[in-house]
Amino acid sequence: MIHFGAKIERNDPCWCGSGKKYKKCHMAFDEKIQGFRLKGHITPDRSIIKTPEQIQGIRESAKINMACLDAVAAVIRAGMSTEEIDRIVYETTVSMNGIPAPLNYEGFPKSVCTSINEEVCHGIPDEKHILRDGDIINVDCSTIYKGFFSDSSRMFMIGDVSEEKRKLVEVTKECMQIGIDNVIPWTFLGDMGSKVHQHALDNGYSVVREIGGHGCGLEFHEDPFVSYVSKPGEEMLMVPGMVFTIEPMVNMGTDEIYQDRDNGWTIYTADGKPSAQWETQVLVTETGHEVLCW
Ligand code: MF3
Ligand code: CO
Predict the structure, then answer these.
(1) Nearest bound ligand to CA 263?
(2) Beta bridge partners of 151
């Protein structure tokens, strides 16, 4: 939480590091946030408001992340193993002087997550996992560059995909876009999340509750947790300078999921029906948003 009681005087240098006086810089911004907080809303801590320099660092990191997904997009096909996707991501990242954020993250053994069909997320690349005609796959990339984190994922349809699965992939992309369109400063994450949820429901799908988006930039996972089953007027206030991911996981059937007991990572749908996910990383701006990574 922001400690507005902390003594920062009008003529002191602003906490954001701009060098300007507080009263000419973030004072009105802080007062506006405090107004929401006093009404009982969840408001962001200063620590998750990015400076222009930090935003530039995240943009540089995102260039690598997007290059990885572009490189995968260029070659992904039936017959390829997910291990091969991992190699492409690793090599693209290190060739651009980045570090794959998933590698060794809490013991994750690979550089990227590859989640096929009923795998919801956190699939582990493996030479035994061969892409087959009709599969849908999420490739989720995250990069560290000069200490800045980027995170995005895309779906790929392998060969001849059923109409049912194609629609799931397309509607999930629409859900992500609705999320992006509703990143509006001085509104709530719940305003955005509820619209994402509604679009999935309107198409007969469900949205995973336990896993969602997250602040991202100076750390891999920062506050806030971003739900896509949230309610209007609830969750954290969005303010300019916040950076987080929009990454709804949309299931064709039940929203229930379970975790792989053997590898401790991969999440599956409980009913074995397919799941899709797209992820972008967005910045809240004064007037709306900027997509930093997709
Ligand atoms: N990229 C995932 C996300 O969107 C995180 C994966 S953690 C990993 O949050 F260790 F599985 F890579
Ligand atoms: Co993410």
Answers:
(1) 1
(2) 142
Give 23-55 pLDDT, tens digit per residue: 999 999 999 999 999 999 999 999 999 999 999
Percent of the chain with pLDDT over 70: 98
Please tell me the distance between residue 153's alpha carbon and the centre of ligand 1 in angstroms.
10
Closest protein CA for atom 8 of ligand 1: 102
The single-letter code of the amino acid at 225 is F
Closest protein CA for atom 2 of ligand 1: 140
Structure tokens at 115: 């989640």
CA distance 115 to 97: 26
Residue 141, helix vs strand vs coil = strand
Please choose, from the candidates 205, 290, 219, 287, the residue with its C-alpha nearest in 3D space to the C-alpha of residue 248: 205
The tens digit of pLDDT for each residue in 151-206 reads 999 999 999 999 999 999 999 999 999 999 999 999 999 999 999 999 999 999 99
Residue-level length of the chain? 294
Count other Cβ atoms within 10 Å, centred on residue 107.
7
Torsion of CA 159, 163, 169, 172, to 10 degrees: 170
Q: Quick one: DSSP state of residue 10? A: T
Whether this prediction's pTM lies above 0.85 is answered by: yes
Residue whose Cα lies nearest atom 4 of ligand 1: it is 151
Which residues, other chains included, contact 179 with Cβ-Cβ below 8 Å and sequence gap of 6+?
Answer: 192, 193, 195, 196, 228, 246, 248
Q: Report the residue among 106, 151, 226, 282 best suited for mutation to probe ligand 1: largest number of ligand atoms under 8 A from its CB.
A: 151
